[in-house]
Every structure is written in C-alpha cells, then in structure tokens.
C-alpha cells in the first residue's frame, strides 16, 4: 500500500508543480529575470539597502507612480509623465524608454526580446 500511495502522492505533486509553474513560466521566469537584471544593475539598486544612485532604486516598482522615490532627482520628463508603473507601462518603457517618456534621462537602448521583458517583470514583481 505504501508504495502505491507514494507513487500517487508523487503524481499529485507533479501535477501540482506543473499547474503552478507552467503559467508562471509562460508569463515570465523570475530566475531568468534576475540574470537579465544585470543589465539594469549598473544604474539601479534593489533590496533592503537600495537607494537612488545613477538611477532610482526599483523596490516595489510595479504599482509605483513614476518619479516617486524621494532620494533621486528625476528628469522633468519623468516627473511630468504621469505614468503608473504596471506590467504594460513597464514593458513598453523597457522596449523603448524614450518612446514612452521622451526626454527621459534613462540612457538605455531598450530590450526587444518579449520573453526577456516578461522575465524581468516576473523578477521585479518579487522585489517588494
Ligand atoms: C545607464 C543607466 C541605466 C540603465 C542601464 C537602466 N536604467 Fe532605468 N533609469 C535610469 C535613470 C537615470 C532613470 C531616471 C530617468 C529620469 O529621471 O528620466 C531610470 C528610470 C527607470 C525607471 C523609472 C523609475 C521611477 O521611479 O519612476 C524604471 C522603472 C527603470 N529605470 C527600469 C530599468 C530597468 C528594468 C532596467 C534594465 C532593463 C534599466 N532601468 C536600465 C538609468 C538606467
């Protein structure tokens, strides 16, 4: 009995893992996003001791109003943008920063790979 019970439990676990992980993967992989964030880390900090440096810190950026951290001097363009960072606005900004915020001080060529953007968003979502 114990052997079939174990197999059965394994099957259930595998189904659970697939059910939980498959959609998350399709939407974006936080581990891959963490690796991709190396592109951002020369200018942006994350984590408990993050502060504004060359760019603003990005803790909890999803759901944040643009230009709302208090220890960073934003460009007028970013201050006046009126953007709230959510999945759509962030994805568009990462694809082409100056298309979304003309005159932004973020000098970044942009990311054209949709999967990489999804991965980055998944990672940023874990950084509250
Ligand atoms: C060369 C430096 C640099 C790189 C690389 C860079 N950024 Fe930025 N980023 C900036 C600067 C500077 C600003 C402030 C822009 C302004 O005030 O116009 C900014 C602003 C932002 C904002 C708006 C933040 C807020 O508080 O409104 C987000 C979101 C952001 N960057 C995300 C990213 C992500 C994600 C990456 C990596 C894919 C990245 N940036 C790469 C310099 C950089």
UniProtKB/TrEMBL annotation:
Keywords: Electron transport, Heme, Iron, Metal-binding, Signal, Transport. One of its GO terms (molecular function) is metal ion binding. Residues 1-26 form the signal peptide. The keyword Iron applies. This is Cytochrome c family protein. Transmembrane segments: none annotated. The keyword Lipid metabolism does not apply. Residues 28-128 form the Cytochrome c domain.
